[in-house]
Write a structure and sequence with these properties.
It is a single chain. The protein has 186 residues and is mainly β. The protein folds into two domains: 66 residues, no CATH class; 96 residues, no CATH class. Helices cover 5% and strands 44% of the residues.
Amino acid sequence: MRTRTAVVITATTVVLGVVGTSAAVATDTVRVSAGASGVKVCLTKKNVVVGASKKSRCPKGSKKKAVAVRGPRGLRGATGAQGPAGSATAYGVVSADGTLVTGSPNVVSARRTGTGAAYCVTFRRPLPEDRLASALATSNDVAAVAINPDRRTARVACSPGELVVWTFKNGEPGVARDAGFQFLVP
């Protein structure tokens, strides 16, 4: 069992008078032992905390008492109010075969292009390139995800206004590998 030194209030006296209220508090440093069932303290018959020995034994005439013991879990609270609508232009999840698993209302479809591990995400209205350039994508299956490479050098069959996502093999940067991913266009 571990022992800790803690500052504990050992006596509190409150005197109420006709004119006002005054309080006196005495503090002392006592040794308490902390175990799995809370913090153990030594209490006298008058509920005064007294110091334990170095071996965590209570002095004669006092008893060890567990305080700060975690009780049973309480009832679940009420559901909170609906938060404000998000500000993302588009978001979604795409599987490794290019199927759109889920997406925001303005995401129409996704497809694997057949060029390496490149995917195109189509929107109801084409998005401006500056908006696509700030898109984010992640994958749990691959080491890297590249978004919107230069269409002239990447030779990807995605139309302007579509999001282009490349996925790469874990541990081998530059080696394309099909993988599912999540995306967000702010």
